[in-house]
Amino acid sequence: MKDMKEDEAPLLESIEGEWSEKRLPSGRRVAKSQWTRGNMLSALFCLFGVMCLSLSIVVVVFGPASPAGMNQKLKDTSFYSPVLDELEIPLVETKSFGAFFDDVENPSLFRQIPSPEVDAAWDDLEWIGRYYITDEEVTKLGKDPSITVKSPRYPGKNIAIITVFHELHCLNSLRKAIYPEYYFGQPRTDEIYWSHIYHCIDTIRQSLMCSANVDVTTYNWVETQEAPYADLSKNQVCRDFEAIKRWQNKTMETLNDVPVHRQGGEVELPRPGKLKQIHEAQQKEDV
């Protein structure tokens, strides 16, 4: 580096020198100013601190919500879920359609008998994405990360799913059980299948009882009907399901797109007692 010329002195040194070397008209030297380099650095640091504080206030007031404050209403009535720290879920006012008979002019696709169009709608509704969570998040769920299935693609991540889509899968499974000839060619009799169906019934029961919807249903008088007729359509406040679905579809791969295999050293849990009974019965049949 070439030597710095006198007129190329650093800005702070130039300013300090200007204040220090000024003389009075009489020729007497002015006492060295108290505005030293240290004073100026202190002032600049103070100014920087004020700017940072102002920026922080702007972020807090106008910026996106921090994880601690995100979805606070939902967190107050939910067990821990990392989703509530990742996705802002709006609450939306809607009106449900719960009429006993379908709307003749605008029928719901989800009330129709099986068809390719109906199946496509249900398949889209119950699409399940693969969600990756950390060991810390597994622990916050009240589970043990030493026994959860790890991702083969993302070290340190555990494979999970979002519960609402599993529940919709269960509801769709119950729908299909009503039409065994259409979906399976004949009624199903295998025990694994019916264990799945009963699992789905009980899963939906528990979910309904957990949410314990206390919205109120009223009754009307309807022509030709002797008894009061329940008006099962109602105004309600819901979590924005479409926002959740869009987020899942945008950020996750299909649950079964990437095969998962044991990588070695996994802890295996004992198989459920009912599954053991089914296996033993099958082995006896095969003998």
TrEMBL record:
UniProt keyword list: Membrane, Transmembrane, Transmembrane helix
Pfam families with a match to the protein in the record: UstYa
Residues passing through the membrane, by range: 41-63
Entry similarity comment: Belongs to the ustYa family.
Protein name as annotated: Tat pathway signal sequence
Protein's organism: Zasmidium cellare
Lineage, top ranks: Eukaryota, Fungi, Dikarya, Ascomycota, Pezizomycotina
